[in-house]
Amino acid sequence: MKYEVVIGLEVHAQLKTKTKIFCSCSTEFGRPPNANTCPICLGMPGVLPVLNKQALDYAIRACLATHCRIEPMNRFARKNYFYPDLPKGYQISQYELPLGTGGHIDIRHDGAKKRVGLIRIHMEEDAGKSIHGENLGHPDKSYVDYNRTGVPLIEIVSAPDMRSSDEAREYLTELKAILEYAEVSDCNMEEGSFRCDANVSLRPFGQKEFGTRAELKNINSFKFVQKALDYEIERQAKILDQGDKVVQETRLYDSSKGITYPMRSKEEAHDYRYFPEPDLAPVVVDERWVREIRDRLPEMPEQKRERFAAQYGIPEYDADVLTVSRALAGYYEQTVGLHNQPKTVSNWIMGELLRELNNDNREIEDCPVPPRNLADLLDLIDKGDINGKIAKTVFEEMYKTGKTPQDVVRDKGLTQITDESRIVKIIEEAMAANPAQLNEYRSGKEKLLGFFVGQVMKLSQGQANPALVNRLLKEKLA
Predict the structure, then answer these.
(1) Which residues of the chain carry a pLDDT beneath 70?
(2) I want to staple 128 with a disulfide (CB 3.0 to 4.6 A). Which of 21, 85, 267, 345 is the partner?
(3) In this predicted model, what pLDDT tens digit does every residue of 389-427 receive, in sequence order?
(4) Interaxial angle between packed helices 466-477 and 449-459, expressed in degrees from 0 to 180 and rounded to the nearest 10
(5) Which part of the chain is CATH 1.10.10.410?
(6) Can you tell me whether residue 469 is helix, strand or coil?
(7) Per-residue model confidence (pLDDT) at position 422
(8) What angle (nearest 5°) sits at the alpha carbon of residue 274, between those of residues 269 and 279?
(9) 3-class SS of residue 296
(10) Is the dihedral of CA 37, 43, 48, 53 positive or negative?
């Protein structure tokens, strides 16, 4: 391409409070429509908001985890726009005085580390959800569910530092991990608690000024963010190649067609007529409180990656994969605590376990193989009760049924054959069944040893001890 891609991301993350940001309504997901509502979040006349202190605590944690400066005074503002899912006719957000500024997130791309700056992190309330009637059998009507109205959010605004859709995906993956490690959000994209808007523009290489950007709204998976960006980059490049100008607008992504399409012209800040929220006093953040929150922060992903590589002696790549979520890192450490062979455990988790989870679209929290069972399986291999090939068969059954490896081995009769006399009989059977290959081997074609090993393992249904098979075969063939 002759154009440089410029990408900035705006992520809305729902804070994991039990109640909303300005009232005591529940934030529980999946309740009947409009069950989690009250006069405050419905915007009734005469009601007053009260800031949820736990939401502020979580927001400060998020700022500290992303290296932001906590502004000593921040202020809420009214963001005015009119839409059916916004009962007050405005959203309480933060504008000129956000909570956090100037942070950064480090990502790895193409084997190198890159720093993506953060412009700001601010708090705001979520809007409701419009439900169009065709999904309910009433195509001429629309409905509104206000359960989500007033749910506490932080908006994390990156600098336009990303130069490809791959970098954008790496950034989102790292940001999600940081918020999960800091325990401020569950980042469940399916439930809408981690949503992304992407700003993308192109400019000729060497040009300092940014091109005209398009904003892609509310994309609900990392895969779709990447695909939407790739489509939009190609679309804008074609426009510029034709000598036309890109229109500044907000666009939506159609995942079924793999295209973006216009939603509306892009608003600017003045379109929202921001002004300070008169019903909420400015928030003054005490430095002592910030220190207390900082002291409570757990180990962050980057720290855990470095520790895994140093403590367990595993490659940096393994450490990256194993720390992508706090739950996966915990699973690894529990398993290593039970079977102290860090690289072997890493191989099994990154290979067999993650493959099965990905195939089922499951998270590690829903894994049917607990660390104890995986450790016991690896113990059976070390003790020689089963070999590596059989172990993979056993693991598949453990994953399907939730059984222990001992139960699977016993029920399916998969114990490894270590009796030398039994193995010799199988070897003799293999030799008798392949006289031509036997003569060739004894004539000097020793590469046929691998053939006979395969035949013996086949006859033993993979249960013969490979080391014994190799030794005894060489003796008998000679």
Answers:
(1) 266-267, 269, 416, 419
(2) 85
(3) 889 999 999 999 999 999 998 887 777 677 688 888 888
(4) 120
(5) 420-477
(6) helix
(7) 80
(8) 155
(9) helix
(10) positive
pLDDT of residue 438: 85
- To the nearest 10°, report the CA torsion of 358, 359, 361, 367: -70
**Residue whose token pair is 């470095």:** 306
User: Rounded CA gap, 130 and 218, in Å?
Assistant: 14
- Tell me the two tokens of residue 399: 């994953």
Q: Is the CB of residue 350 less than 8 Å from the CB of residue 329?
A: no
Rounded to whole angstroms, how far apart are CA atoms 56 and 285?
10
Amino acid identity of 400? K
Instruction: Please give the structure tokens belonging to residue 70.
Output: 């906590």
Sort strands 104-109 and 129-132 into parallel, antiparallel or unpaired.
unpaired
Measure the N-to-C terminal CA separation of the chain; round to a whole number of Å: 64
The span from the CA of 73 to the CA of 239, in Å, is: 44
Rounded to whole angstroms, what are the CA distances from 64 to 51, 194, 288?
20, 19, 14
Position 312, amino acid: Y
Angle at Cα 160 formed by Cα 228 and Cα 9, nearest 5°? 45
Calpha distance 181→192 (Å, rounded): 19
What are 438's two structure tokens? 């036997």
**pTM to 2 decimal places:** 0.84
Model confidence pLDDT, tens digit, residues 427-452? 888 889 988 888 888 888 888 888 88
* E-strand stretches of 33-111: 69-70, 73-74, 76-80, 90-94, 100-101, 104-109
Continuous segment of H or E residues that includes residue 203: strand 194-204
DSSP run (H or E) holding 474: helix 466-477
Q: Which fold has domain 420-477?
A: Arc Repressor Mutant, subunit A (1.10.10)
Two structure tokens written together for 411? 């029920």
Contact predicate 403/397, CB 8 Å: yes
